[in-house]
Amino acid sequence: MVLKSMGKMIPGIEVGHHTDLRAITGLTVVLCPHGAVAGVDVRGSAPGTRETDLLAPGNLVEKANALLLAGGSAFGLDAAAGVMRYLEEKGFGFDAGVARVPIVPAAVIFDLGIGDAKTRPGPQDGYRACMAAGEEFEEGSVGAGTGATVGKALGIARATKGGLGSSRRQVGGLVLAALAVVNALGDVVDPATGRTLAGPRGEKGFLSTTRILEQTAMKPPAFNTTLGVVATNARLSQEQAHKLAQRGQDGVTQSIRPAHTPWDGDAVFALSLGEEKGDMALLGALAAEAMAEAILKAINTAWGLGGVPAAAELAA
């Protein structure tokens, strides 16, 4: 029996999932319809993204109305059209004079190696996820984490189930939250203890991805990516949001070893929605800490699907 785990971001941000357990794929929408200052940091060498260039400091548009995290590889980017339709119907988006254009940056994971590779999230699924969005959201093998797997250096047959998790920090009136979709090539390691929570499965526990890369010339499959969102109620400029996304990536490297490989498309978004004063040194430290913890939670709350067992099932 899987116990339901729930997460929460910051005030003004809602999260909605579409989960297809038959095809083992899905998507997650992070809604900030009135607009949040947004930044992004893409470090993996195999990303699948949409409108991330728009978020670079110095460009015309500074705010996003939603973020889309999706399975389905590049096919899943189509789901952003449904998110745009939902926001347009509600009257949200960048005012271009003749129309309001919702700004929906997106990033995808490759989950076609598990479940039905012919079924991918589409526009209707993005729309439904918006309709289902709320302040609290389920974690584990849901949404964009439905088809997520980790530790694939020896192929999907030896992988461990990944998922979606979150973490939240509050210091006085300052709130920061992180959300992670963990579909990494590497191992997930608890940085506090050094214990491996998930990775390639051997006969007597998890194997080290780094040691596998040392010992074999086999090219690992390009079926990997960790996606993250860091959100805060601190008032930030676009440049500061970009820096906060970078600090979120520090959390990725703390919990995933190795991260940002040639076969990963790791991307972290940052959202600023609020008027609190926040010191960037503190915010950066909280972002790295919260992202690292969100990654661990994604593994600990996941359940097995498609013949790929979860860490909790292996430990039972």
Which key terms come to mind for this protein?
globular; 9-stranded mixed β-sheet; alpha+beta; 316 residues; 20 strands; single chain; 3-stranded antiparallel β-sheet; 6 helices; L-amino peptidase D-ALA esterase/amidase
Q: So, the CATH homologous superfamily?
A: L-amino peptidase D-ALA esterase/amidase
Quaternary state of this entry equals single chain
User: Taking all residues together, what is the mean pLDDT?
Assistant: 94
Please give the domain count: 1
Q: Using only CA atoms, what is the Rg? A: 18 Å
- The percentage helix is 10-25%
Question: What would you say the CATH architecture is?
Answer: 4-Layer Sandwich
Q: Count of DSSP helices?
A: 6
Q: Characterize the overall form.
A: globular
How would you portray this structure in words?
The mean pLDDT is 94. It is built from six helices and 20 strands. The chain starts with a strand and ends with a helix. It is globular. Strands 2, 3, 4, 5, 8, 12, 13, 18 and 20 form a nine-stranded mixed beta sheet that branches. It has one domain (5-311): 4-Layer Sandwich (L-amino peptidase D-ALA esterase/amidase). By secondary structure, the chain is an alpha+beta fold. It is 22% helix and 33% strand.
